[in-house]
Amino acid sequence: MLEIRFHGRGGTGTVLASRAYAKAVFYAGRHAITFPSFGPERRGAPVLAFARIDNKKIYKRTQIYEPDVVVCLDDAIMELIDIAQGIKKGGKGVLNSPNKPDEIKLSKSIEVGVVDATKIAKEVLESTITNSATLGALIRTIDTISFKHLEKGILSVFGEKLGEKLAKKNVEAARIAFEETIFGTTLGGRNYSQEKCWLPTFDELPIGTILSKSEVNSGQLIGPGSAITRKTGTWNHKKAKIDQEKCNKCLICVFHCPEGTIHREGDIIKIDHTYCKACGICIEECPENAISMVEIKDFSEITS
Ligand code: SF4
Ligand code: SF4
Known about the structure:
Elements: E1 2-9, H1 14-27, E2 31-38, E3 46-54, E4 69-72, H2 77-80, E5 92-96, E6 111-115, H3 117-125, H4 131-142, H5 147-162, H6 164-180, E7 182-185, E8 214-215, E9 221-222, E10 238-242, H7 252-256, E11 262-265, E12 268-271, H8 281-285, E13 291-295
Bound molecules: iron/sulfur cluster (2 copies).
One iron/sulfur cluster (SF4) binds near residues 247, 251, 253 and 291.
């Protein structure tokens, strides 16, 4: 699976870019999903979009914290945000910048494809919307699909929103960017001020607090998150159990368990039977049929 994180600004077509790319991947006969994450909902505010591509069906729906590729549509975003954060070893960047790769300083030194997408957008589109040009640089840099497929993706997604004439101009911007992309390695060592983490990363989720807990007047916890005060222990003679051989670590069960009992320990997904109430929801939702309900004879044995 290839995971791509797009960095841009509200109102500059970041989400449209990720959708057009995903559609192009689909036209190339592969699987793709894409979704946005908005911060402050206003024009100009930093936004993120994510795309996953694979040769098989994709179940993973979490945000991408450790991308294979980061795409930055706006030169100035790199001044504010550590776009290389979490990038995998050997991961690549695709940057809109008037500078050469070795003139760009990020938190890490990474291999990049760089294009002056703003200049191209001004010339071809008479605007500063850099999404289509950046897509041209993206497929040149990571070579996952052909330009023909990207063209189809842009014509479909941009065409639906902007009309055929403007969609064709965006194809032209992408084509010029594809040809003008240059390659190299950025400088590393740039320090960014620590950002507030609004959403917890997966391994920060403790048992029973996947969603916030709420209190009633009596002080009792109710609703999602209340499991922390509701140990099931030996109350139930059946518990859900994960077959680690089958588990693909998609995390779908984690987000469906109403008790918040499924968690990650190191590299494996585990169920804390202290809280599992054997409702069976995780069994229904697991795409790999990796979870089954087992009879518990000796409660000292059950941990996953
Ligand atoms: S047990 Fe199933 S749903 Fe849970 S992470 Fe593994 S494959 Fe995904
Ligand atoms: S059976 Fe229900 S409570 Fe137990 S782990 Fe699965 S979803 Fe959670």
